[in-house]
Amino acid sequence: MEKKIIYLDHAATTPARPEVIEAMIPYLGEYYGNPSSIYELAGISKKAVAQARQTVAKALNCDSKEIYFTGGGSEADNWALKEAVQSYANRGRHIITSKIEHHAILHTCKYLEQKGYFVTYLNVDENGIINLKELQAAIRPDTILISIMFANNEIGTLQPIKEIGQIARRHQILFHTDAVQAFCQVPIDVEDLKIDLLSASGHKFNGPKGVGFLYIRNGLKLHSFIHGGGQERHRRAGTENVPGIVGLGKAVELAMADQEERMDRETKLRDYLLDRVLMEIPYTRINGHRRLRLPNNANFSFQFIEGEALLIMLDLKGICASTGSACSAGSVDPSHVLLAIGLPNDIARSSLRLTLGRETTKEEIDKTIDAIKEIVSKLRSMSSAYEDFVRWRGNRR
User: Fold this and answer.
1) 184 an active-site residue?
2) Among the options 62, 184, 320, 327, which is catalytic?
3) Element (H, E) at 285
4) Cα–Cα 20 to 30 A to 312, which of 88, 182, 334, 378?
C-alpha cells in the first residue's frame, strides 16, 4: 500500500487547487493567443489577464492599474528595491531593512551596497519584531526606502506594518513589504496600511509556480525592470504568462472567499500543535511570537538534536516539513533568522518548521506530534551532550 504523505511545508509551496488547474487549462491550449496581438483570439487572453488583475486588486483594496504581474516573489522583490532606489536616487541613497528578511531582499541589498547605496539592517527582538523607535532613529535625510517583510517566512512573526507605513509616509519615504508569506493568509489593505510597494507569489496560496505580482502605488515613477516590450503598461517586458496569471487570479478568488474561516481553523490547529509539543517534549522552545504570527506557522527548536536529522527521519515516516526557508535548503549554516532573534548556533540548528494548509487535519497533527516525540527521544538517546546534561541535572538534585 502506498504511504500517505502528511504535508506540513506550506510555507515552501502549496498544491494548486483543482479549480485553479481547471481555470488554467483552456489557456494552455484552446485560448493560446498572445494578449499583445489585436485579433479576437488574443482578446480572450487579454480579457483573462485583466480579470485576474482586478481580482488581485480587490483583495488588496487598490486600483487594478497598480498590479504588475511578475515571474514570482523574488523578481517582485528585486524590482521593488533596485528600481525604487534608482528612480529616486536624486533624493538619497539610504535604505532601511531588517536582519530577518528573505534572501531575495537581503541579497539585493548587498548588491545595492556594492553599487554605492547605504543599507541599515534593523535588529529584531526575541520574537522577531523590529523596534519602531530604532526604525525612527535609523531614518536619515537621504533615506529613500524602507523594506520590511509583512510576515517572516521561517518563524511566522507579523511585523507592525501599519505603524511602519505611517512612519514612512510621514517622512515621505517609500515603503515596500515582502508579503509573499502573508498575502491571502491574513487581510491586507494597502491603503489603510500606507504601503507603496508589495510583493507576492502565486504558489504560496494554492496557485501555480512561476507567477507573482508587484503592487506599485499610483504616482510612483518606478522604471521598467525587464526591457524589451510594452507589456504590463511598459513596466515589465515579456509575453504574459497567461495560464499562470489566470491560475493566480483564481487562487486569489478562492482564498479570499474563505479567508476568515480558514484563518480561524488554522489558528486553532496551530495552537493545538504548539501546546501539545511544548507540554509533551521537554527542552523545546517556540520560535517567533506566540500570538502575532501567521495562522498556519509553527516553528520549534528541540535542544540536543540536529534539525536535519529530525527532518530526514520525519520524511521516512511520510511527513514533509522543513528547518526553515526552502530557498536555503541544503545550507550548512544555521538560519539567519534564528540567529537574529538571539538563538545560539546549536539551538538554531535544532529547529523545525511546520506550516499547515487548508487540507491539514487534526489527525495529521496528532500523528506528526507522536512521530516527533519518538524521533526526538531517539536522537537525544544518541547525544553525548544530552547525556552530560541529564547527568549534570541529576548531580544538582
Assistant:
1) no
2) 327
3) strand 284-286
4) 182
